[in-house]
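User: Hey, quick favor. My workstation is busy. Could you predict this chain's structure for me?
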Amino acid sequence: SVNLNHKVWKQKKVLLDVKAETLKCFFGVFINTNGFVAVVEPPGEREYLGKMPAGFRMIAALLGDLDNSDGRGKVFFRQESSPDVLRRAHEHIKKAFPRDDSVEPPSVLIITWANMAAQGTSGRGDGLDAKRNTFQLVLASTDLSSYAILLYPRGGLQFLSTSVDGESKLLEAGFNEGLVKGWFRTTQGTYFRITTDEETSIKELTEKTNSGQRGVWVYEIGTSWLFAGITPGMVSSLPEEESTTEPPVTMLPTQTEDYQYTVPELTEPRYSPVQPSYPDSVQPRYTNPDPVQPVPPYSQPQHPQIVVVDEDEDLNVNVFAYNLETCAHNRHKCSAFADCRDYSNGYCCHCRPGFYGNGKDCVAEGKPQRMNGKVNGRVFVGNSPSPIELSNNDLHSYVVANDGRAYVAISNIPNSVGPSLQPLSSLGGVIGWAFALEQPGYQNGFSLIGGVFSRQAEVIFQPGNERLSIKQEFKGIDEHDHLVVSTELDGRLPAIPLGSSVQINPYKEIYQYDRNLITSSSNRDYTITSPDGTVQTRSYQWRQTITFQSCPHNEATGVAPSTQQLSVDQIFVMFDADNHLIRYAMSNKIGILPEQNPCFTGRHGCDINAMCRPGEGLQFTCECAAGFTGDGRYCHDIDECRENPRVCGSNAVCTNLPGTFRCECLNGFVFPMSTLIRGHDDHDHPHRGSHDCDAPERALCSYTGGSAYVCSCLPGYEGDGRVCRDIDECQQDRCHRDAFCSNTQGSYTCQCRPGFNGDGFQCSPSSSEREKTQCERQRESAQASGSGSGFFSFFRPRPAVGQYVPQCDEHGAYEPTQCHASIGQCWCVDANGQEIPNTRTGSGINQVVTPPPVGPTPRPDVHPVTPGTHLLFAQSGKIEHVPLDGYKMKKEEAKPLLHIPDRVVIAVAYDCVEKMVYWTDITGPAISKASLSGGDIIPVVTKELQSPEGIAIDHVSRLLFWTDSMRDTIEVSKLDGSQRRVLFDTDLVNPRPIVTNPAYGRLFWADWNRDGPKIEMSNMDGTERTVLVKDDLGLPNGLTFDPDNQQLCWADAGTRKVECMDPHRQLRRQIVDGIQYPFSLVSFGKNLYYTDWRREAVVAVDRLSEKEMEEFLPQKRSRLYGITTTPSQCPQAYNYCSNNGGCSHLCLPRLGGFTCRCPDAADGRCEERNL
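Assistant: No problem, here it is.
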């Protein structure tokens, strides 16, 4: 060990011996008593203390103005290669990165700052001189990567700050890049901070971890073909046993340990065989799993070039089969009147015969329905400057389901606003749509989506342009069988005098249906008759959006037509000033109305608690709803409590309700947790055996509200509940294609075939890949490389544009002829890749002068794109297109669309309205566009960009979105680049792909942060940001959204998989695995197309069969970047910003509405508002 004496020097230069295959390298480092290690000789401490980031490269273990002049403080360092030391270093690395196949380092450098005092406190005698800090830095290097291990004492640090120029400055830990020299100027590099400006972050160095051991912090700091950049350890959680036991060994000495190291010659560090590299002490206990969050959380590159981050080829990452999404675990989520059915990707609930709904909510056919809720909000009337406050006003509604007649009443309405609410019959009329009388082939709202949904409506009154917003949340069926709703009003109504009557004309409204979205709009006329007899006609425009969650797993389930017509007539509205009630009534029918059968016109005479069953011509019958009895013309309630007094059991009270009943336990009793529906297990038919359901191992006997019990088959069986047969799941392809399936009674098992690993639901080939050749290693290193090597290559660069990458043949040997396109030269090499003298051809090395971009038709053989759908993909300095014939790529017709020499095009997007191609260029950097039919390149955004890597378009709102992985931002602008606004600039590390869902006003993006990759979602106005996916991700490079199937899909170069998810239900499934290195992804119909860096190809995958279909290899082989499609017609979509929503500047859609926002560089005339 070497002791650095403060009286002699502040830092010591040390030569480190690092073995790299057969080459022996020496790197010089400077160890400083102020708690850091540098790669260059540091300037005076006035240049960096309290002034970080500094202008030189360093690792700060615990930076501050530290003092060892009294002889108690010492700094020790040594390079160590003893097996015990290397094993301990390797154990820390493995704990921090459990998924990486790291190897034991051949040697480590250990630096210990022992008993260091704060400068100026030694010998003061006031107690401050007794406070000492001891900490340690270990640098470990393998052939593949380098690591920094920081260790802090179990007992805590004794001081957290030092005095710098008379001011108290917190100690700091982190990695500082220093000044970075560019082509034209020198800029300050990244400062990757482990601590923050909060004192608690210094304390937490000893209390928390990122390596599974308190006070131990591990960072991957090297660059190679496998690793790049600073990556914090991944294990912040700690074993529970550490709360009671303390293992006896750690690398770090305690604060009070007396060091007796020998001091050899200072000019040549030696290895001390008798002393361990890590002095022993008591190891700290484990603690809570929250890590210290670095600020910023990831280092940033100094040049805007794409990084190659290859995952370990031997890494076998198995994604969980989502088998918790089965009826066995979720039957209780279905209605008591529904059956649960398992499908290949999950379960769905289906209402039983005699009931209708979405399976989660089911109601009896023909039974009247009720809705209860509260109304809140602020409403301005006329020109009044003061709003009328509505606070928990009761709303009640009643629907005669067999004729579609709906009644709505809202209570406690002030006279100042009541008359003006009369035109808003649809305020409660949504229940009319929900339970509208269905015409043949059509379904009302409740049949389709049940009782849980959100509704947002906007009303614009003419001629005064008053606006009112209506937000309603429908919360399903409560224990009283009532639909529950909350309503919020906000806006202004035109004034209607008290005593006036309002007549609303019949109207028709078209409802447009998507998987989880329903929209409608209409114009409505109404007539106001004032108390003095004056009559005037007015109108308003009505627009609404209904969002809900459907069950995506049963593709065979019948769905409504894409459009349905709601017809509303016999409309009655009245404000009762004496009782302060607003009343509405209307008749509702869904579908086209050619049928004259009384069941479809509502003129049948059946009891209101009966269902009308149509017959031939005008014939029909009436049938009492479940829970009622009679001839259908007259139905009366069945009193289940009287007919079966013990239906609820001896310790419960039965209460009869219209069409059903309710059981309530006596004091001191509770229902069993397994009871999923009303009724009591202890004395019911299932336990008494007085039922005809199948055996309990195959069927379930349960109470319902409308009859004594129902029988249903258990998961794994099918039938009517009275006879249940085993389902042979092996006939349904439940297991992975590379697995054996074994059927059992009520279940099945999956087991991967020999040569494959996994759980049977997901199988991947066992690793048998040969060791990479020298050429392959050099090629991959060049693809992922940047400047620097060894311990201090800890800032992730991007490969230089035009960097030479060796060419290898199919066996991994060097191609005899090597070429470097950027300098226009080729040469011959021997078997070791060494250039053979006098074989270089081509022009000399000239300074590269970037020519001006060339337009989309630069040569006679480059023509505008023919009509039809094409794939567009970026390849270095050009964009190519491949026509599609159905889903098949017409490879022979592939041609360049656009040449942009000396540019690296990353992402491409297509505007289907103006037929323009947009792309990002990281060498400009810039965002540009050009017409698909030819013409000049048009700059869109050229300023305040660093590395724009993802781009997306909302063709409805005419908006442009992009990610910048160096600015760590997500931004939006108009399609011409104007009115630019930053949506997000926090919690982003490496944002890359971004896509839009215009119909929902949603935005999706992926961040391939190695420390925590994630896929996020928000509204386009920046609200409701949420993480969709964070588990089982590696490098999510590609992202696409399929609006037809509402599927978000991504390609991951880390897990080597393509996966999809319904973002509404957040159900995830794997499409393909074992792919190479995907970069970008696009969806078209049933296919997914992705670009692959390793295959240098466009690959087509059938999403339904989950198989690769074909690949396209461009004539010129090099990396492919972004990919998109050019559909011949725009996908049908609507959002509130299709005409800019009346906003002065940016109109940004969101789910159910829109927001008017100002650009970041707004003038004083901009107005922001939410609608």
